[in-house]
Amino acid sequence: MALGFFSRLKEGLSRSTQKLGTNLTSVFTKRRLDEESLVQLEEVLIAADFGPEVAENVIETFRKTRFGSEVTDKEIKDALAKEIAKVLQPVTVPFEPNPELKPHVVLMVGVNGTGKTTTIGKMAKYFGDQGLKTMMVAGDTFRAAAVEQLQIWGDRVGAPVISGKPGADAAGLAFEALKRAKNEGADILFIDTAGRLHNKSALMEELAKIIRVMRKFDETAPHSVLLVLDATTGQNAIEQVRIFKEMVDVSGLVITKLDGTARGGIVIALAQQFQLPIHAVGVGEKAEDLRDFSAEEFAAGLVGNTNVEVSTTEVVEEKEE
Questions:
Q1: Rounded Cα–Cα distance for residues 100 and 232 (Å)
Q2: Who's near 124: CB < 8 A, 6+ residues apart?
Q3: First CA to last CA distance, the chain
Q4: Burial class of residue 169, CB neighbours in 10 A (0-12, 13-18, 19+)
Q5: Where are the alpha helices (H) located in the chain, listed in sequence order?
Q6: Residue 211 and residue 194: Cα distance in Å, rounded?
Q7: pTM of the predicted model, to two decimals?
Q8: pLDDT per position as a tens digit, 14-57
Q9: Quick one: which H or E segment has residue 107?
Q10: Residue positions forming the annotated binding site
Q11: How many CA atoms lie within 13 A of 285 on its CB side?
């Protein structure tokens, strides 16, 4: 039997867990929680990409509740997992398309290489499996590989992909796709976009144009703007959120490539700093490797703690055809 999602999440976060666990063990064997150990713990958390604000909050909680007590690294991990889950719980919001919108327009944004196009394909499959009609727009018209990749996903999941000639106007393409999706009764329209952040002003102009042109047909579009982030970039992900929030009204996050990264702590820093809903996380290349974000599962996977309650629903991987 294939690994369930929580097992894959733990496996994917193993480098983060190992790094964090080794550093915690070096601070806590069995000793009283004094000021020196709290300072060392704060340094460990910051080094693990939790961010200074999150680290400070965790330290203050421990200072109030455990100061002077004799603790082991396991007890610290248990308490840390609960604190992490507490920080993440408010942003744990599954993505749910509005059934009253036909289609619910989802603008996908993010830097090239974050897994944006693949995420669209995975989401299209997920909602298609639920009986919803999905359509995709290959809006990164200057990148042939992105168009081809989306077409492959379209064939795989049975969803139409609207594309144009190389270098076609992305706004015009989105407009025509929205009209077609409306006429064909699609439930969700996913729009892929360019992610050339080295030319920030041009990208900002392109995204603004896509939105402006779509609103000539539907003044409420897009209904969701999802920013896809690559967890392996660590603190750079924070800067990407800042930049894209300047460009568009980001409504939620999808965090990819949690498999094999030693920087899983960045998820906590993102939650604390921006309070944006984290809709889903990805731990691999297969369609079923993207799933709704769970605060408890993530906290347990990050600290290597199996005592935190997690969802008992395990997703079993399908065999690739």
A1: 37
A2: 134, 136, 153, 154, 157, 159, 188, 190
A3: 17
A4: middle
A5: 5-12, 14-27, 35-47, 52-65, 73-88, 116-129, 144-157, 170-183, 200-214, 236-247, 266-274, 295-303
A6: 14
A7: 0.86
A8: 555 566 766 676 666 556 788 888 888 888 888 877 778 778 88
A9: strand 104-109
A10: 110-117, 192-196, 256-259
A11: 3
Q: Are 161 and 136 in contact (CB under 8 A)?
A: yes
DSSP SS3 for 257 = coil
Which strand ranges, in their side-by-side order, compose the sheet holding 252-256?
161-162, 134-137, 188-191, 104-109, 224-230, 252-256, 278-282, 290-292
- d(CA 146, CA 117) in angstroms, rounded, equals 7
Least confident segment among 21-35, 62-76, 172-186, 250-264: 21-35
Q: Cite the annotated binding site for GTP by residue number.
A: 110-117, 192-196, 256-259
pLDDT tens string 259-273? 755 577 889 989 989
Place of tokens 């939620």: 252
Going by the DSSP 8-state scheme, the letter that residue 288 receives in this structure is G
Residue position matching structure tokens 């409504």: 251
CB-CB contact of 150 with 138 (8 Å): yes
Q: What residue type is 296 in one-letter code?
A: E
Residues 276-287 have pLDDT tens digits of 999 999 888 888
Distance CA 51, CA 43 (A): 10
CB 61 within 8 A of CB 83: yes
Q: How far is CA 17 from CA 13, 33, 73, 304, in A?
A: 6, 22, 13, 6
What is the rounded distance in angstroms from the CA atom of residue 51 to the CA atom of residue 315?
31
